[in-house]
């Protein structure tokens, strides 16, 4: 029998309440994202790219600052202020596009505001499972959160298209403002639970925000658990995430498969990822998160290689399912490992580093992998991605990494003990 952990740990009602409000807000965000992308695309490719850049650039530049602010003033406070600001931004955007025949300036300013708010909001919301859930239930809590995100990604674009047809961009903005208002009400209701025993830790001495922001990088880079875990996450972000959005469509075109086949492969990958998340939510995570994450990354590498070797649609779909199972196993074990190993004083700052680690490699490798696929073949690039993933996973099993795993076990046991006292 495979040992699991946290399978009998009931998640607090406060967490489910927060997750319900967050899921609704995510649905509104994805609805709005589709509406903004559609309207921006109608103004030309350059303007559409400019809108995306207006969101991504401030988000990346200010993430570390956002994490430092959240650790200093509290994640709850930052989320409340962020939600309130987004309500105002969406209402102003709705009025602006309603009265103006040219949506370009309102869209661009709204995108800039979204990017700035995201930089402060994402580190705070990423730390909430640790703040609301005992250590033994972290894996189940994060699996539920991952499922909520997948649901929003699946339903948001469809909802966005319906709202856009029925009420235009102004209607989408008002709908998004409504979901932010509902989440704000949930956060206000959770105020008594915003600071509890799970936050823990001793307050840090006051220091400049820029120094506190850099301190998050220092902790992530020097900690024997966080450093290898974040490196693995960076490798997965750079060489596993592009498979879905970039390499599968290119492979399908090379093999002269119809678009439906490419969609089925992507759906199989998503199904594998979601299946593992459901399993962890119901049964709990494996007892050794380090080895489970590494083994899952190896499974994903095998799936990616099999995808490159597949000569039939059925084989490619099966390979996509295998890659999804590996991806889901990796995400459901490495995420709780990072949260459990993070010092209580640096929860939001390390989450900010995590978001950076997930986004920067993806930006860098997507362009490079696309160019390589054009110069060679998509299958060759898939083999290369599989090799990088497998090499990283095997390196994580090296003797030098075993000490980090042992320390992670000690940190998790200590956190569980503190949560039970």
TrEMBL record:
<feature type="transmembrane region" description="Helical">
    <location>
        <begin position="229"/>
        <end position="252"/>
    </location>
</feature>
<keyword id="KW-0472">Membrane</keyword>
<keyword id="KW-1133">Transmembrane helix</keyword>
<keyword id="KW-0812">Transmembrane</keyword>
<dbReference type="Pfam" id="PF07690">
    <property type="entry name" value="MFS_1"/>
</dbReference>
<feature type="transmembrane region" description="Helical">
    <location>
        <begin position="147"/>
        <end position="167"/>
    </location>
</feature>
<feature type="transmembrane region" description="Helical">
    <location>
        <begin position="352"/>
        <end position="369"/>
    </location>
</feature>
<dbReference type="GO" id="GO:0022857">
    <property type="term" value="F:transmembrane transporter activity"/>
</dbReference>
<feature type="transmembrane region" description="Helical">
    <location>
        <begin position="381"/>
        <end position="404"/>
    </location>
</feature>
<feature type="transmembrane region" description="Helical">
    <location>
        <begin position="293"/>
        <end position="310"/>
    </location>
</feature>
<feature type="transmembrane region" description="Helical">
    <location>
        <begin position="264"/>
        <end position="286"/>
    </location>
</feature>
<feature type="transmembrane region" description="Helical">
    <location>
        <begin position="76"/>
        <end position="99"/>
    </location>
</feature>
<protein>
    <recommendedName>
        <fullName>MFS transporter</fullName>
    </recommendedName>
</protein>
<dbReference type="InterPro" id="IPR036259">
    <property type="entry name" value="MFS_trans_sf"/>
</dbReference>
<keyword id="KW-1003">Cell membrane</keyword>
<feature type="transmembrane region" description="Helical">
    <location>
        <begin position="316"/>
        <end position="340"/>
    </location>
</feature>
<feature type="transmembrane region" description="Helical">
    <location>
        <begin position="15"/>
        <end position="41"/>
    </location>
</feature>
<dbReference type="InterPro" id="IPR011701">
    <property type="entry name" value="MFS"/>
</dbReference>
<feature type="transmembrane region" description="Helical">
    <location>
        <begin position="47"/>
        <end position="69"/>
    </location>
</feature>
<dbReference type="GO" id="GO:0005886">
    <property type="term" value="C:plasma membrane"/>
</dbReference>
<feature type="transmembrane region" description="Helical">
    <location>
        <begin position="173"/>
        <end position="190"/>
    </location>
</feature>
<feature type="transmembrane region" description="Helical">
    <location>
        <begin position="105"/>
        <end position="122"/>
    </location>
</feature>
């Amino acid at each position: 029998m495979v040992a699991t952990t946290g399978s009998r740990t009931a998640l607090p009602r406060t967490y489910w309440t927060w997750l319900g409000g967050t899921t609704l807000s995510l649905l509104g965000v994805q609805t709005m994202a589709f509406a903004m992308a559609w309207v921006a695309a109608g103004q030309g490719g350059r303007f559409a790219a400019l809108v995306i850049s207006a969101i991504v650039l401030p988000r990346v530049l200010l993430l570390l600052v956002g994490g430092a602010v959240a650790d200093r003033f509290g994640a709850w406070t930052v989320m409340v202020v962020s939600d309130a600001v987004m309500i105002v931004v969406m209402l102003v955007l709705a009025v602006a596009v309603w009265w103006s025949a040219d949506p370009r300036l309102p869209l661009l300013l709204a995108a800039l505001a979204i990017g700035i708010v995201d930089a402060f909001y994402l580190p705070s919301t990423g730390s909430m499972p640790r703040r609301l859930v005992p250590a033994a239930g972290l894996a189940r809590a994060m699996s539920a959160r991952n499922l909520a995100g997948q649901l929003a990604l699946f339903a948001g674009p469809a909802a966005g298209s319906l709202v856009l047809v029925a009420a235009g961009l102004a209607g989408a903005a008002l709908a998004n403002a409504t979901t932010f208002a509902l989440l704000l009400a949930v956060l206000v209701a959770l105020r008594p639970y915003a600071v509890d025993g799970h936050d823990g830790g001793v307050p840090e001495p006051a220091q400049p925000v820029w120094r506190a922001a850099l301190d998050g990088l220092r902790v992530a880079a020097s900690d024997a658990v966080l450093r290898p875990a974040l490196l693995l996450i960076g490798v997965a972000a750079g060489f596993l995430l592009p498979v879905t959005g970039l390499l599968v469509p290119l492979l399908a075109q090379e093999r002269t498969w119809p678009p439906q086949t490419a969609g089925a492969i992507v759906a199989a990958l998503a199904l594998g990822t979601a299946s593992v998340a459901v399993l962890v939510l119901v049964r709990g995570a494996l007892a050794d998160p380090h080895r489970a994450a590494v083994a899952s990354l190896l499974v994903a590498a095998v799936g990616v290689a099999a995808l490159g070797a597949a000569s039939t649609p059925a084989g490619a779909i099966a390979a996509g399912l295998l890659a999804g199972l590996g991806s889901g196993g990796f995400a459901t074990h490495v995420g709780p490992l990072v949260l459990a190993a993070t010092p209580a004083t640096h929860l939001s700052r390390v989450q900010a580093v995590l978001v950076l680690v997930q986004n920067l490699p993806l930006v860098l490798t997507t362009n490079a992998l696309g160019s390589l696929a054009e110069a060679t073949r998509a299958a060759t690039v898939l083999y290369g991605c599989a090799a990088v993933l497998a090499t990283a996973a095997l390196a994580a099993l090296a003797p030098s990494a075993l000490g980090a795993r042992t320390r992670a076990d000690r940190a998790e046991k200590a956190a569980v003990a503190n949560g039970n006292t």
